[in-house]
Amino acid sequence: MNAVSPSSVDVASAVVIPAQSLVSLFLRFLRFGALAWGGPFAQIAMIRHSLVDEERWISSEHFNRVLALYQVLPGPEAHELCVYFGMLARGRIGGILAGIAFMLPGFLMMFALSLAYVSLGLDVDGEFAILFAAIQAAVVALIVRAVHRIGSHVLLDKWLWGIALLCAACHLAGVHFGILLLGGGVAYLLARRWPLAAAAFIVLCATGATVWWSARPAGVQVGLQAVQAIAMGSVSLGALFWSGLKAGSLTFGGAYTAIPLLQHDAVTRGAWMSNSQFMDGIALGGLLPAPLIIFSTFVGYVGGGPLGAIVMTAGIFLPAFAMTLLAHEPLERLIHEPRIRTFLDGLTAAVVGLIAATAVTLMMTSVRSILTASIFAAAISALFIWNSKWIIPTVVAGAAVAGLANTFV
Question: Alpha-carbon torsion 355, 360, 361, 366, what sign?
């Protein structure tokens, strides 16, 4: 799609998009990024109110269709919407500028927090231990709430429930997430046409996982174990970029789906950070005006310093840029193909299982005292009772206050 002047026309909706310079386009989406508080629903609502309800760039029906596409595809939907609107206004260069502008405030703030965290050694045992333990209990509550929220929209029949539960069990047993994602999609494809074949496939997969678990090599642990972070800079930039690219390509259903994927690389396999550090990064991401996936900047910083933060962030967001800029229309047609949608439904159910398994392992390592159990209970109650756009930063900040109060008592 090429830039046009003085205006761009959205043919599908017959709406004229006001002409604007690249600088004004960048500043418009930079403002969106600076005000992107409250998680994806609040971010999408802000974009819709400004560009659809007030300025009428596209029709409400067209917006709904575009949003439905990005909810199925991997990547943060709010960011992809910004890239899409930027592309409508000024072509692909406009899409790139809009996407960069939207993510830039969150990236800069997370970069600064990562620098402070590592430089000051805030993760070490000592006077800050109770503070971060309290915050981590709240993070576990956020992940549990995400499992419920995503699962309620995804697990719509017994097959999808079965896929999610089996994938959770297999992930706890150490089966690679790539196998589980592929298996979930294939299983649901079979279930919709040949239920008996699907049942046989699932039984075969469960048997294989059980055999593997029984014959696993000595030293293999269940789930994700806290390990000591290795020296910063020992992880190659290529490995960090590849880790981000994989996670960014598989974040179906929101940023929370990236958690088990990045944790597998950063904590379990790569061992460049501990479970505790990983959860601190998620907590910091929940405080910022940005898609929660921006916590990947922190993961990259711990693994490779400033350059590590940049390359992992680039890897995470690259699929969102590429799918919008290069393949929006073909993907919109493809996603309506029934078999593709069915496969993605099964894959997404598998992702729910992975997040649930991650929540279990994190709970086992983080909720281990009366204080953390109390904070977890209060946080999960607040998350289920209130639906405010401020609930995530409020829960994290509240846990921090409780941790500080117990630190200096």
Answer: positive
Of 81, 72, 69, 65, whose CA–CA distance to 252 is shortest?
72
- CA–CA distance, 60 with 53 (Å, rounded to integer): 8
Provide the pairing of β-strand 15-17 with 8-10: antiparallel
CB 359 within 8 A of CB 147: yes
pLDDT in tens, 146-189: 788 878 877 888 889 988 998 888 888 777 777 788 888 888 88
The confidence band for 252, taking pLDDT boundaries of 50, 70 and 90, is low
Cβ atoms of residues 260 and 250 within 8 Å: no
**Distance (Å, whole) CA 187 – CA 193:** 10
pTM, two decimal places: 0.71
Residue 365 CB partners (closer than 8 Å, separation 6+): 224, 225, 226, 275, 276
Residue 16 bridge partners (DSSP): 9
Q: Where is 10: in which H helix or E strand?
A: strand 8-10
Q: Mean of the per-residue pLDDT values for the chain? A: 80
